[in-house]
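ok trying this again, last paste got cut off
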Amino acid sequence: MKYVGVKQVTKNVKEGNVKVVYFADDAEPYVVEKLLKLCTDKNIKIIHVKTMKELGAMSNIDVGTSCSAE
């Protein structure tokens, strides 16, 4: 993944650098709800991943993450 974490993903979605965003299903809704709406508004493809831990591994980091993008 190119971008990991809500701040980095949000920034790059706004800048138009993102084609797909991955969200962890076990992330706290209040953490990702604004980004999820932003992605929907900008017609960015959304993919759901079961856990934050799994998404972290997919993103090549040693901890979980609520979202990542490429």
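PB: full thing came through this time. The CA atoms of residues 9 and 61 lie 15 Å apart.
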